[in-house]
Amino acid sequence: MRAATSILSGLMWPSTLRSRIFLILLIGLAFAYGLSFSVLYMERYMSAKAVMLGTLEHDVATSIAVLDRLAPDQRVDLVDRLGRGNYSFVLGPGLPGVPDTSSKGVEILGKIEEAVGHRFPIRIERIPGEVSRLQAHLTLSDGSPLTIDVTPKGVMPIAAWLPYVFAVQMALLVLCAWFAVRQAIRPLGELAAAADALDPNNKDGPALSETGPSEVAHAARAFNAMRERIAHYLEERVQILAAISHDLQTPITRMRLRADMAEDSPEKDKLVHDLGEIQRLVQDGIAYARSAHGSGEKNARIDLASFIDSISYDYQDIGKAVTVVGLVQGAVFTKPHALRRILSNFIDNALKFAGAAEISVGRGAADDIVITVMDRGPGIPDDMLEAAMQPFFRLEQSRNRETGGTGLGLAIAQQLTAKIGGSLRLYNRTGGGLAAEVTIR
Amino acid sequence: MDHVDHVLIVDDDREIRELVSGYLQKNGLRTSVAADGRQMRSFLDANAVDLIVLDVMMPGDDGLVLCRELRSGRHKAIPILMLTARTDEMDRILGLEMGADDYLAKPFAARELLARIKAVLRRTRMLPPNLQISEAGQLLTFGDWRLDTVARHLLDKEGTAIALSGAEYRLLRVFIDHPQRVLNRDQLLSLTQGRDAELFDRSIDLLVSRLRQRLGDDAREPIYIKTVRSEGYVFSVPVEISEPRQ
């Protein structure tokens, strides 16, 4: 109804398809229904009036003729019997009234005049009062006055219960329109929800129900087939990457061993360095493919403080400057390997560009856990922070070949963050340096 | 006559077998090679071996299958170093779960392989474990704690995982493998040295204090790791092996 009023005011067209279709159906049906109702009403009114006036014409003419012929004393006996439901005869001049010029009065006057064949001059008057009442005054041939008292009962061509039927029918129409719209719109909503929740990695996830009307079932089948195709492509991608990397692993291992066997020389060092780069690319490529595909790792409740400490100790034990500057107590429910990999990628970046990393853990607005890895390196220009999370992104001025890296670290971190249901943010710190932040619930 | 350690290399790639074999020989080890599980079994039936370098990705019976077979058979005392082509954490865990003593991801530096082989040999020779954790993947229960040897973390009474750094885990495993036995600092240091042996230079005392902190042990009145004056440390709580998880 709110939608209907807004339409009436012409201010707003409802935004949902549901309201629009509902509104169109409702207005259309109500209009058509109202139209046929009024036509019916009009037709019935006309015919009822014709019948009534016709009766009035004949009966009144006959009655006046009879009364005119009778002797005045005999008229008294008869006058009451000549009356009908909506008119009666009164001998005498009647009540004082005001001249009536309404169309109804004129019409009735005309009918009576016609009926009596214009033999008696007739004057019609309205009697003021609550009830609509007309009196026609005429003088019979013997000079005595006669009054026809007319109480036009509103011509009600339809039964009193009919409006209720109309109301019930309207309610039924509203209900049907709403139900029909719901039928048509609901599968669309379900399809959208399924597309939103689409996780091709989770093959065991519920497929869209393929029941319902044939169009809906068809759309659901097509959607499920698409879902399977996506899952298949993703699987294929991982398989291809795994196959390539496996096939590369053996020759790289051979080359590495051969290089190790060779005499020490600058050439050997360069070869080992290049092999290291190839190897890292292969490993990060697999890691990236797997991060998109999901490792099937289960959630576990982990103690936050010992988790962060263990990461920093592992780095410290191999001589890296990784320190914990802030901790909160408590446990989180997450995928520990994925989270460790995310933080390791942040830390590796920080170590690469700044030589040192600081880890800080705090609680966010909604009591979620915010883990931040900070450095005092060159940072990333603000307009490139988004792009930095794309695979194979490199800041050319700072990330040259010397620093190594495949440009997959942050992309992997972002994929894994999505997998653990968290969010990732990069920002430049005041005073220089980059902060990489992962928020988990 | 000095004992020369005999290493069996099991890898399906001929060149890798020969390269590894050549490198190890150059560095004073005796080596033999096998191309698959069948050759490995027949070689072990006729020869004594000190360590097996086992490749994971092999046609036929792969390294994981062979590892489990070795661990449940009569050769279960031979240390195994697994070569894995995969780098994924879960695969590493799987290898250790099957009972390998250490692992190395391909491609690897020959120098590192040699260091690992020596570390594993030193470990098993220096102090054979009292508690034979032949099938890892079990929960080790002591005091209020359980140690998950697959995920390599502690579980408290409520089941919350308490993460351990690599060095902390290795130290705890040394203690757990040798309960109620006084271990001196040199023993602890060499047994704890793992992957990054040459880089690891934390003193044992610092590591013990970290571990005590993880276990909620008060340094003045420790329950789990007690100090033995001028000798070293002793893990004073009995350890039980729980059933593998599901």
TrEMBL record, chain B:
<dbReference type="Pfam" id="PF00072">
    <property type="entry name" value="Response_reg"/>
</dbReference>
<dbReference type="GO" id="GO:0032993">
    <property type="term" value="C:protein-DNA complex"/>
</dbReference>
<dbReference type="GO" id="GO:0000976">
    <property type="term" value="F:transcription cis-regulatory region binding"/>
</dbReference>
<protein>
    <recommendedName>
        <fullName>Regulatory protein VirG</fullName>
    </recommendedName>
</protein>
<dbReference type="GO" id="GO:0000156">
    <property type="term" value="F:phosphorelay response regulator activity"/>
</dbReference>
<feature type="domain" description="Response regulatory">
    <location>
        <begin position="6"/>
        <end position="121"/>
    </location>
</feature>
<dbReference type="GO" id="GO:0005829">
    <property type="term" value="C:cytosol"/>
</dbReference>
<dbReference type="InterPro" id="IPR001789">
    <property type="entry name" value="Sig_transdc_resp-reg_receiver"/>
</dbReference>
<feature type="DNA-binding region" description="OmpR/PhoB-type">
    <location>
        <begin position="137"/>
        <end position="237"/>
    </location>
</feature>
<keyword id="KW-0804">Transcription</keyword>
<dbReference type="InterPro" id="IPR001867">
    <property type="entry name" value="OmpR/PhoB-type_DNA-bd"/>
</dbReference>
<keyword id="KW-0597">Phosphoprotein</keyword>
<dbReference type="GO" id="GO:0006355">
    <property type="term" value="P:regulation of DNA-templated transcription"/>
</dbReference>
<dbReference type="InterPro" id="IPR039420">
    <property type="entry name" value="WalR-like"/>
</dbReference>
<keyword id="KW-0238">DNA-binding</keyword>
<dbReference type="InterPro" id="IPR016032">
    <property type="entry name" value="Sig_transdc_resp-reg_C-effctor"/>
</dbReference>
<dbReference type="Pfam" id="PF00486">
    <property type="entry name" value="Trans_reg_C"/>
</dbReference>
<dbReference type="InterPro" id="IPR011006">
    <property type="entry name" value="CheY-like_superfamily"/>
</dbReference>
<keyword id="KW-0805">Transcription regulation</keyword>
<keyword id="KW-0963">Cytoplasm</keyword>
<keyword id="KW-0010">Activator</keyword>
<feature type="domain" description="OmpR/PhoB-type">
    <location>
        <begin position="137"/>
        <end position="237"/>
    </location>
</feature>
<keyword id="KW-0902">Two-component regulatory system</keyword>
<dbReference type="InterPro" id="IPR036388">
    <property type="entry name" value="WH-like_DNA-bd_sf"/>
</dbReference>
<feature type="modified residue" description="4-aspartylphosphate">
    <location>
        <position position="55"/>
    </location>
</feature>
